[in-house]
């Protein structure tokens, strides 16, 4: 696979991943009571709604800004665990898991192609 294709795969997966996390963060901030209701149903602490929304926004900034390789690695780790746990939580609740499962795949693809692409990354 040539470098141009790797770069395209990296940027497409990264933009889609960031789109999913932007959607998620805005939902947490715009509808905190609804999200807290889901958290209660799954026995998660409801006081995590705002910190998770802020963490998702900061993770998007870390991934797209390339300020620090260290921060970008931690953002990918956080996104991965968030997506896996969200997929499991939605599955247990009987919800559709398509978007959260797609997030898992996109996080993995974006992270794998980050080092393999010629994208200007830190």
Which descriptor suits the 3D outline?
globular
Q: Beta-strand level of the residues, as a percent range?
A: under 5%
Content-based structural category: mainly alpha
Measured distance between first and last alpha carbons: 22 Å
> What count of helical segments does DSSP give?
5
Helix content: over 70%
Overall domain count: 1
Largest sheet: none
How do the SSEs run, as a string of H and E? HHHHH
The pLDDT mean sits at 92
Q: What does this protein look like?
A:
The protein is built from 5 helices and no strands. With 122 residues, it is mainly alpha-helical. It has one domain. The two termini are 22 Å apart. 25% of the residues are buried. The model has no long low-confidence stretch (mean pLDDT 92).
Key descriptive features of the protein:
single chain; about 120 residues
List the helices and strands and how they pair.
Elements: H1 3-30, H2 32-41, H3 49-65, H4 69-93, H5 98-116
Helix pairs in contact: 1-3, 1-5, 3-4, 4-5
């Amino acid at each position: 696979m040539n470098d141009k294709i790797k770069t395209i795969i990296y940027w497409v997966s990264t933009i889609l991943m960031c789109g999913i996390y932007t959607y998620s963060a805005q939902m947490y901030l715009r509808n905190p009571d609804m999200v807290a209701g889901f958290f209660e149903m799954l026995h998660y602490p409801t006081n995590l709604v705002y910190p998770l929304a802020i963490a998702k926004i900061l993770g998007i900034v870390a991934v797209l800004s390339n300020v620090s390789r260290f921060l970008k690695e931690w953002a990918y780790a956080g996104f991965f665990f968030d997506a896996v746990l969200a997929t499991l939580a939605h599955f247990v609740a009987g919800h559709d898991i398509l978007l959260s499962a797609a997030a898992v795949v996109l996080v993995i693809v974006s992270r794998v192609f980050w080092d393999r692409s010629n994208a200007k990354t830190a």
